[in-house]
Design brief:
By secondary structure, this protein is an alpha/beta fold. Helix content is about 35%, strand content about 25%. It contains twelve helices and 18 strands. Strands 10, 11, 12, 13, 15, 16 and 17 form a seven-stranded parallel sheet that branches. The protein has a six-stranded mixed sheet with strand order 1-2-3-4-5-6, with helices on one face. The protein is elongated, with a radius of gyration of 31 Å. The N and C termini lie far apart (about 100 Å).
């Protein structure tokens, strides 16, 4: 009996020793294989509402990187995300020890119109102490298929709005500059502009309290144009920069003749820019809407066209410009891209007041003076040149008829007839040097 118990105890002891060896071996295995940086790969799960989450780890001698990022299967947006990963992840802090970099993100789909992404980057030492935190944003317009800038979110004299709000948000007003406004997050009720490390300094612009400043176009977002966005036809797609090009511009409309003029330009695969006055915009808002939808360029020619802008007070100047800008935006959900002051009169104060470049002209048809088709055509043909901005008025039948007759003649001479934007793209240096187009000084 004693011998049986002794043998049983020996077996139990051997089994316990085996278990101890196995447990010890497992413990050594776990210790050897445990990821020392696992704690730094954490991410939030409830704030990724757009895109498919991806995760990459990079373990180098000087840094350990854990980065989460979204993929959208959209070339424009995925390129922007890739650019963030390649250019904005920082690992160059001067440290004696290894740096830990953790990148997480928030992503939101706003009313199926905009995607807003905020990347949160934290740099730590190996003990987990935070050295630096930053937030960088990407905002994407799904309808227009483009990465958004401040001017796509806010309009009018938006810098004044941001500076006024900065004081309430405890943001240094000196930091609120035109070149320092593109770090923002679009939300369902407001847009937030970031002005500090991480999210510690923000200027919040609620939509419903600032309708006249909101450039976003969506039925759910309060603005002067609370409708679905218009996606304009893409003109000027097959431009040869080595061939001569000109831009027709028409002042004082829109009128009852403007649609006829637009039809002719479409027929000859040509573009034009229309500098409109406020009351005519209000009277023919349907024409303005069609003008934008068909891909023509919108211009602002002030509200009254009665006085030279250089003779106005700042308040009068702002009213002349932005009352017309508001009327254009109400009509189509897009602002004018250029300002043409009445009589071509502008100075530094005008350039500072206008968020738009100021457009002059290189060829004056003098159509308002002659009111004669042949005279208008002769004046243009004798003066036209590569890069010319041609001035006419779409309120006179003779001017419209002259332009329509000139389209095939100018095309036969090899001229490409384009918008001011396209002319600036290919002849910008020449245009600005000659002051035919003067960039805005607005800040």
């Amino acid at each position: 009996m004693y011998e049986k118990a002794k043998k049983r105890n020996i077996k139990i002891l051997i089994a316990l020793l085996c278990l101890a060896v196995i447990a010890g071996s497992y413990g050594i295995y776990v210790f050897m294989t445990k990821d020392p940086y696992k704690a730094y790969t954490a991410y939030k799960e409830d704030n990724k509402k757009a895109g498919t989450m991806k995760h990459e780890v990079q373990d180098e001698e000087k840094f350990y990187l854990s980065v989460y990022y979204p993929v959208f299967d959209n070339e424009v947006l995925d390129q922007a995300v890739s650019a963030y990963r390649n250019d904005k992840i920082q690992s160059d802090l001067k440290q004696n020890s290894k740096i830990i970099i953790n990148v997480d993100y928030d992503s939101y789909d706003i009313f199926d119109s905009y995607i807003s992404i905020a990347f949160h980057q934290t740099l730590m030492d190996e003990d987990g102490h935070a050295l630096k935190t930053t937030t960088s944003t990407i905002n994407y317009d799904k309808k227009q298929n483009k990465i958004m800038e401040t001017k796509d979110v806010l309009r009018r004299d938006y810098m004044s709005l941001l500076r006024n709000k900065a004081k309430d948000a405890n943001v240094d007003v000196e930091k609120v500059t035109k070149n320092n406004t593109n770090n923002f997050i679009i939300g369902e009720k407001e847009v937030r502009f970031l002005y500090g490390n991480s999210m510690d300094r923000m200027i919040t612009i609620p939509y419903d309290e600032n309708k006249e400043y909101i450039a976003l176009t969506n039925p759910n977002i309060p603005s002067l144009y609370q409708k679905e966005a218009i996606v304009p036809k893409q003109k000027d797609q097959n431009i040869d920069p080595n061939k001569p090009m000109i831009a027709f511009t028409f002042d004082d409309g829109p009128s009852d003749l403007t649609l006829k003029l637009m039809d002719a330009f479409d027929k000859y695969d040509a573009n034009a820019t229309f500098f409109m006055v406020g009351p005519n915009v209000e009277r023919r808002s349907d024409v303005v809407k069609e003008m934008y939808a068909r891909g023509f360029q919108l211009g602002n020619h002030t509200w009254t066209h009665e006085k030279e802008l250089t003779r106005l007070t700042h308040a009068q100047l702002m009213k002349e410009i932005y009352d017309t800008q508001d009327a254009i935006f109400k009509a189509c959900g897009h602002d004018a891209d250029y300002l043409r002051p009445p009589y071509g009169s502008y100075d530094t104060n005008v350039l500072k007041a206008s968020i738009m470049p100021v457009a002059y002209w290189g060829v004056d048809s003098e159509d308002w003076k002659s009111r004669n088709v042949d005279s208008i055509k002769k004046e243009i043909l004798k003066s036209v040149f590569d890069g010319a901005i041609i001035l006419e008025h779409d309120i006179y039948g003779t001017s419209v008829d002259a332009a329509i007759e000139l389209l095939p003649e100018l095309k036969a001479k090899g001229y490409q007839i384009v918008s001011l934007d396209t002319l600036m793209k290919y002849r910008g240096d020449k245009l600005t040097k000659t002051s035919y187009i003067t960039p805005s000084l607005y800040e």
